[in-house]
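Entry for the shared binder. Reason: the reviewer on the internal report wants the predicted structure included alongside the sequence.
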Amino acid sequence: MDNFKYKLQRFMYGRYGIDKLYYALIVLSFVLLLVNIFVSSLIINILAWIILVYAIFRTFSRNVYKRRIENEKFIRIWNRVKAKFSFAARRIRQFKAYVFHKCPHCKAMLRLPRKAGKHKVECPRCHNEFDMRVIL
């Protein structure tokens, strides 16, 4: 067993390996294959297999520089998507206690206590004062 492990380590030396884009591609491929079970489409099946082969190609690639740039681009996009979903989840969790409102000047999202009536609000980012009305 140690001999196989050693040979695998020697084979993978200088190759890119696994990163977050690899995991995303594998999950996407398996989701498409799962959807294909119910829909039974040749296009979805081919697309899923192409994505899977590309993920494996990236793992064994010796061009580390290009794979790293691809991963950085993916992480930049993924972080934006993740931030939007986590903010939406936080908004849902805090719905009863807080109201969220955008600053009309700098468009920053403000979290204010849910107290009915008119309020004078100062944006912490741009220090612009504006009137806001909370209904519920």
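Summary line for the report: Strands lie at 98-102, 109-113, 117-122, 129-134.
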